[in-house]
Amino acid sequence: MFKLNDRVFYPFYGVGFFINVEEHDIQRELQTYYKIYIPDKQLDIFVPIDNAQRLGLRRIEKIENLDSISNIEYNYKDHFEVLGDNKKQIFLKKLRLGTLENHLQLTRDLQYTIWAKINLHYEEKNLLKIAHNMFVQEIRDAVNLSEKEAIEFIEKDFKEILKNYI
């Protein structure tokens, strides 16, 4: 259970704040929802309590320091061993799971593809944009950085890691 103003993360929406628990009558059945406010989208969303975990609603991850993110190892060669629709399904699963590590992996995968001078499909470009935004939001709020500082950290981190692969 969340407390008032707990920072939470909801896949595809980003970082928000827990507001309260509300009951709504849906087809003559009373259902209980978490009310979450997503400030970046200026949006209130209602997540069914019974499905919240399955839908990926969670507290934002605690980050001791930014180095702990940089130290998450990842093998870029794995990215190229998967082809076509399988790759798309893996990308979507990482985005749906909504963990910080999944967003990091997805963003690194797609960014590496760009730096390796391989064209991204339209869907992959959209996934990169969504994953990057989710990653920036969570780092920004977990470490209490400005959005600009979070973006600068990510770009520096990726360049450091990718120099070993390109």
TrEMBL record:
Name of a matching Pfam family: CarD_TRCF_RID
Matching SUPFAM superfamilies: CarD-like
GO biological process, one term: rRNA transcription
Domain CarD-like/TRCF RNAP-interacting intervals: 1-111
PANTHER family (UniProt xref): RNA POLYMERASE-BINDING TRANSCRIPTION FACTOR CARD (PTHR38447:SF1), TRANSCRIPTION FACTOR YDEB-RELATED (PTHR38447)
Name this polypeptide is given: CarD-like/TRCF RNAP-interacting domain-containing protein
Organism, scientific name: Bacillus mesophilum
